[in-house]
Every structure is written in C-alpha cells, then in structure tokens.
Design brief:
Two copies of one chain form a homodimer. Chain A is about 45% helix and about 15% strand. With about 400 residues, chain A is α/β, with parallel strands linked by helices. In chain A, helix 2 packs parallel to helix 7 and helix 3 runs antiparallel to helix 10. Chains A and B meet through helix 4, helix 5, helix 6, helix 10 and strand 7 of A and helix 4, helix 5, helix 6, helix 10 and strand 7 of B.
C-alpha cells in the first residue's frame, strides 16, 4: 500500500507568476488593456441621442457604472447615462418616466444573450417604443440568441469575447462602448490599465507588493474572512459595488481539495461610514482586513468659509479648510486610529486624481489581485457554478406560471 | 482562597425580557412609537419651500433616507428631499448645483450639535445663501451648541432626547420632521411601529420568533459571523444601509468579559446581487446567515408584454408575467436554492407592501432584534466608544493646519 498527498501545498511566488502567465493565454481579461478602441470611438461619434440607457445586470453594468459615477461630475459630458438592471417594477417605472425615450439610445448587454432580467426589460421597452437599428445596439457573445436578434433586425452589435467573464469585462465593449458614447476618454482608461499590466508582467515593485498582499489575504483567510474596502470619496461608491461582485463571485468557490473557500467583500464610504461601520472595525472581532482608498487630488477648491456662527464659535478651527483637505485628513485619522490598535491588517491605496487613468488602474489592479488570490486558494476565479441551481428553479417556476 | 465566576452565562428568555423591560425605562427609542406628532405636522403645514435639504450624517440621515427611498415613487409627494452628508467636495458641489437654494428649507440635524461634517457643510451653505429662521430649522439635543446657535438666531428647533441614540432616532424628530414635511404619513409610520411594540411587549407570537432569532444569531456567532440581508426590491436599498449602521455600530463592542464581539452586517439587493454576491453565499465558506426580505404587494401592474423578438423566441415563456411576480419568484428561487443546500441559516421576512406602516414595522423590528442580540452578547448596544480615538486624532490634525 502506498499513499501520497500534499493537500494545499504552499505555492511560491514564481510558480504563481508562471501560472498567471500561462493563464494570460486563455483568460481574456488580461489582454483587454490593449483592446483596439477604433470601432467604439467611431460608433460613438455618430450617436445623436442625448440619453444612453444600458440594459444589463451584474458584470454588464457594474464596471461601467463605477467609472461613470467616478468621473461624471469632473468631465463635461455631452450625454447622460442610465442603467436599467433590475426587475423591481417601481424602479423600472420611475427610471423610464424620467427619460425621454424618443431621444434615447438603448445598449442591450448580455454575455449569454438570454439573461432574464435584461431581456424582460428590453421586451418591456419594446412595448413603449419601436426598437430598431436607429436606437438600439447590442453587446453580446458572437453566437448568442441576442446576436441572432440583432442580425435579424440589422442592428449593430459588438462582441464580448467568450474568454472574458462578465465581472472582468469592463475594458471590453461592455464598458468601453457606453463610456465612449457619453464622452469618457477610453484610451486614457486603457493607458491606466496598461501601466498596471506592465508593472506586473515586467515584475516591477508593484509585482512584489500585490503578490505579498494576495498571499497575506489568503494565508490569513481563517483569521480575517472579511475584506473591507474603505473608500474616502462618494465618487467611489460604484467602484465599491464592482469590487464586491468581483471579489465575492470570483473567490466564493470550492477548491481543488473540495473545501469551501471565500473571502467576503465589504465596501464602505468615508467619512459617512465612520458614523456606522467603523465602530465594528475598531471594537469588534478581529475578522477583518481594511484597505483604505484615498484620492490625492480632487481638483476642487471648495472650502469651509471664514464664518463665525453665534453659539458655534468653538468650530472656528474649521474655517478656511478645503473640503478635499478635510476628507483626506479624515482618512488619515481613521488610518492612524486603526494602525494604533496594532492588530488590524490595514493598507492604503492613494489614487492620483479624479481621472480616467486613475480609476482604470485601480480596477485593473483589483482584477489582478483577484486572480492571484484565486491561485493561492486553488480555485477557478472565472466561473460561477453556484448560481445555476437558482436559475433552474426560477425557470421552472416561470414556465408553470 | 476562593474563586467564583460564571463568565458568559446562558441567559433565559424571561431574564432577557425582564432586562429589556427595565431598559425601556432609560433607553428612549423603545417609546418612540408613541411620539406626539402634532408639532411636526404643524410645522410641516407651513413650509413653503419645494426643496428640503437635510444636512446631517450617519444616524441623522440614514433612517430618513431609508423611508424616503422606499416610499417616494409610491406617494404623490409635494416636495423633494435631499441629503448633504459627506465632506467629499465633488459630492457637495454637484448636489448643490442641482438645487434651487432660494426655494430650499435646510434641516440641520446633529445630536451632539458639533458634528464636523454637518457643521462644515452648513458653514459652506451660509456662504452661498443667508440662513435664517425663514429657511433653516435645527434638530439637536436640548443643550447643544447648535441649539444655542438656533436660539441666538431665533430659529425653530426640535429636540433629540438625550436617551435616544442617533442610529435609533428615526422615529423621533430626526426622521419624523423631514418626512412629514415632504408628505409622508408619519402617523402611519408610528402605527407600524406600535403594532410591533405591542406584539413584543404583550409577548405575542412575534415575541417568541424574534427571541429565537436573536438567540440563534448570538449562539452561532463564531460559526456565522456575517449576517446578510438580501432585500428583493431596489426600494429597500436605503433600509439596507440603515441596517448596516444599526447592526455594525450597536453590536461591534467589547463585552463584560472584555472579549471582542461583533456580527458583521451585509446588505444586498435582489435580483441584482444574484449576479454578484450569491455565488459567495452558495459555494463559499459557511460563515453567513441570510435573511431574505420580500415585498408582498408592489401595487404596480407593469408586465412583460406579449411580444416575440426574432431570434429570441425561446424567451417567450416570460411573456405576460408581471414584474412584481417575476421579482418575487426570483426571491423564491433563491430561497429554495439556499434551503436545498441545507447548511445555510436562512429566514424570510415578507412585508405587506410599499407603505408607511410596512417599512416602519420592519425597522422597529430590527431595532428590537439589535437590542436582544446585545443582551445575549453582554454588550451595550447604545454607545460607540470605538470612534472617539479617530475624532481626537482628526481634531489635532485640523487644529495644527
């Protein structure tokens, strides 16, 4: 009798790097920084409508929303972007009532081409306005039913490559098309991702720090099963949501040893959640890591005026402080108070400013971090078998309606 | 030598009930269902402005936002409600640009009266428009600096009782004043809370089930340190945020045995987060309980039209289904798929409809549940000592500016 095993072996940085380079050949998102943007920009140039409505859900909207929400008040955008993503009837009705459908381009995005939420909403839109090649464009896989629909109706369609998963698809047509149409500089987005790509694959300093972080998060996964991203700008609220999907859906898996894995993502906003979640971080159980994200330059000179309010004179020390200074000092105070505790793992990412390259670099960094954690956890980051059972149950419920 | 101890003893349902009844004498939120609403309604009647801007953060805004967000599309409201709650300069600027300040009532809400975010924003508003008794009202403690300011300027002020904590204050002036002004039926809100109050304190069936739930969550706190609220309506997004503050800030504490406690709240929205967080619930580590919240009656007849789209004929089975049916069947499918797994604690709350009493009852139930969990955990649900250190550090950083 002979028996050998090594269960979850420790994997070296070099082995991980080798595997990631191998994975780069088959997993599409790695190479999206080098997407040819010509077709998106050309299409965008000819869009006449003022309103752009993305119909999609999950990976088809979250990344686009993250970038749009981050930049929209800092760019002089020519068009407005809306998202129809849920089956909540009150949500659909109230959003549609606020949009002039006659002056709207619909972008229907579904990788599989048959996403129930997306197609239900699109059918509903069809009952309100004629959808044709003049006001509808499709983003889907090359051989989906939605592609057949587009072809049958002579509509323009853009492809989501089969090897690009929804939650990793923001730098494909899924994100680049709607963002180009509303006036975001998509080449600048890609430049942000290219920098991160090169720093990683050329094994610059970034390579070491992100590997160290992934290794830490996975090695201490039983101590710290919750990873809090604490973003100090309301503009990062969309990024937080995107992170939650990326992290939760990629890392919540059964590993090669049939053991359940999963790191739980939480996204909070500073300073708002100092008045909420921070108490739990500081005094609660030590089951969380904290990543604080700061914006170095808000490019905004709003400041607290030099005004004294009778009865509130003790707050005069706030006078003349710029709000961008205040929020960053609030972040620093939170970081210092967490680090003073000594037993909460905490790191700080400071992005340069409210610009395309900064948000794109942050997102691409998180995609790489997710892939690395998955490698250390011996799981497949790119599938989502756990949600299939619910879909089958739903279909049965609906068909026997 | 003698030694006796009993560490965390098990506490009986009756003992908890006795303690809660005792606590009711000193902790103010318990009795808010019986608040006299006359003054709020009278004040509301005389408000001429079309825009209502609440300046506040955390407990001063989250509950009001939760109720407003839930109801605003289902009520014919006469005024619009906005919240200025963060120091993010881009957020402040973009929100203020969208509001006609000449036609705005400002409600400045701060329990302590010196909340940095709130007063910084209010100072800024003062540099844009003259704030006086005609356009500004204050909600604060009876002896705060903000109260002195209001008195000095002859402004109306409403009191937050000292024994009502911010995160438990939604059914005091904090929530009732702004909600009454925009046209929400605040008496109906209170009727919803009174029903829950009576069911609990008269030990009806609800009493047993909520005690059972609290006991379960605390007894299994080391197995399931994460409590997911999965709300099947986008209208409950504000409720989720409110829940996160209530749960995190109340239960993240050091207990009487000097042991760190804390149950981590997560709020997600269905069906959107079926395409995100659900994978982690289903296949990830068994460290989560799930509470699904459904809305029984959306009072909305939007449905998927009887339309066939060429190429997409296989989706014809969706035709004629009401969206309210679809979203509830999606919830049911998720519940069934989770329950089929057999090892994820899951309960389902179905609220009656999109109405005042339903949301208020849900919120009051969660307040009681929080108090019960705190009792089982031997912690004080009503303080937040963990955030003080950061405030002191911040003040130093700002004063040496």
């Amino acid at each position: 009798m002979e028996y050998r095993d090594n269960f979850n072996p420790t994997i070296s940085d070099e082995d991980v790097f080798t595997e990631i380079k191998k994975e780069r050949e088959s997993i599409g998102y790695y190479n999206l920084p080098f997407t040819d943007t010509t077709l998106f920009k050309e299409y965008a140039k000819n869009v006449k409508q003022s309103n752009i409505v993305v119909i999609g859900i999950g990976g088809s909207t979250l990344g686009t929303y993250a970038i749009y929400k981050f930049l929209k008040h800092s760019r002089d955008l020519s068009k407005k972007l809306f998202f129809l993503e849920t089956t909540d009837p009150i949500d659909i009705k109230s959003k549609i009532e606020a949009i002039d459908l006659q002056d709207t381009l619909f972008i229907v995005i579904s990788k599989s081409g048959t996403t129930i939420e997306t197609l239900s909403i699109f059918k509903y839109i069809n009952s309100l306005i004629k959808c044709d090649k003049h006001n509808t464009v499709v983003v889907t896989e090359s051989d989906s039913k939605l592609k057949s629909y587009a072809d049958a109706n002579d509509m323009v369609s853009f492809e989501i490559p089969k090897n690009v998963g929804g939650r990793f698809s923001v730098f494909s047509a899924v994100g680049l098309l709607p963002l180009a149409i509303v006036g975001i500089d998509i080449d600048e987005l890609l430049r942000g991702t290219q920098k991160v790509y090169n720093d990683f694959f050329e094994q610059k300093e970034f390579y070491s720090r992100i590997l160290k972080k992934a290794r830490f998060l996975v090695e201490y996964k039983y101590n710290f099963n919750i990873n809090v991203v604490f973003s100090y700008s309301s503009r990062l609220e969309g990024f937080n949501k995107w992170y939650i999907q990326l992290w939760g859906e990629s890392l919540g898996k059964v590993d090669i040893n049939a053991t359940r894995q999963g790191l739980t993502p939480i996204g909070i906003i500073g300073p708002i959640d100092q008045h909420s979640f921070l108490q739990l971080i500081v005094e609660g159980r030590r089951d969380k890591t904290v990543t604080v994200i700061k914006v170095d330059n808000f490019d905004n000179d709003l400041k607290i005026p030099d005004i004294e309010l009778e009865g509130l004179e003790e707050l005069n020390y706030l006078n003349n402080i710029a709000f961008s200074d205040l929020i960053n000092k609030q972040a620093d105070a939170t970081i210092e108070s967490i680090n003073n505790l000594g037993d909460i793992p905490c790191d700080v990412i400071t992005i340069d400013g409210v610009c395309e390259s900064a948000i794109a670099a942050l997102m691409y960094e998180y995609e790489l971090l997710t892939s690395l954690c998955a490698k250390f956890m011996y799981i497949d980051a790119y599938n989502q078998p756990g949600v299939e059972a619910g879909k089958i149950i739903l279909k049965k419920k609906l068909e026997t309606n």
